[in-house]
Amino acid sequence: MKFFSFIGDRIFKTGVAVFLTALVCQWIGWPPVFAVITAIVTVEPTVSDSIKKGLVRFPASAIGSAYAVLFISLFGNSPITYTLATVCTIVTCFRLKLHAGLLVATLTAVAMVEVIHSNFLVSFFIRLGTTTIGLAVSTLVNMFILPPKYRLHIFKRVKTIRIDTANLIEQTFQAILEGKRDNNALIKENLNKTDHALLQTEQLSRFQRDEAKFHPLLETEQEQFEQLQHQLNSLRIIHYHLNNLIRSSITNLSWTELERKTIMNAVYGATKRLQGDEFFIISIHHRQLKEITDLFWEDSEETIRSNLSSLTNFPPELIILYELVSIYQMVERFYSYEHTGAKAEAHG
Predict the structure, then answer these.
(1) Which residue, of 95, 154, 181, 306, is most buried by count of CB atoms within 10 Å of its CB?
(2) Is the pLDDT of residue 344 over 70?
(3) What is the value of pTM for the model shown?
(4) Please, what is the angle between helix 33-42 and helix 102-115, to 10°?
């Protein structure tokens, strides 16, 4: 329901932009259809995007209008006019790298063929005027009506991704240490889903940065947003290490049962930390990190002694420990601004 509300804001703003654009054009006495088309495609997720793409769509629309006027004057309202206006508009916009305006320019060129019968030059300038109205109205609506608040959506998504990532860490190491490679397919699928959610959240983060240029955050909100950026970066690196583990061919581990238990205890410690478990004890966490770090260096020294001639092939034990220590450090890094995280949760 909240996601629908998030999407619904943009739909509502598009409706308002269309209504106001058509109203202004009607008041001036210009045909509203082209201005409305421009208004619809110019309502972007952020004001910054609306302005940037609007600056591209204006010259693109002018190109489409110019080709429509040119070929109507040469061939009248005929199939060849539609074809040439479409093809030339696409080619010109593509060559000038006006990709964001290509669709609206092409629609403009085709639509103008049907409505222009005389006064070609006047029609061309009216088309530029209606484009300007559509761009201006949609940008102003985007700026002042229901300005997006991405920060709270980002916070909720980070919380979900954090918990899902903790579960993935536990599942991955369990599958490796217990030799359950059949679980890899399911783990990969879950990791891909979480990666996708992370990518979407990073996109929302970019939207928030762009939006802050026109709707600056309060100091506390800015601090919370920076902390969320920090956490997203930590989660991204954790996912990188998990991907390395899942895609590595790891078999025949030489660890003793005690060593495996030490490693899994460390894994449980990392997942509890990432999940925000209320029974988590930081001193135990640090002790577990020291244990796996010591084990890593022991395995490293053994590898060096047994492979003096070649250090290109690392044993699976060393790879697993390296990735686990790296994940441990990223879990610590995730909470490096824990005090602001508490504020963010209070406001979320």
Answers:
(1) 154
(2) no
(3) 0.71
(4) 170
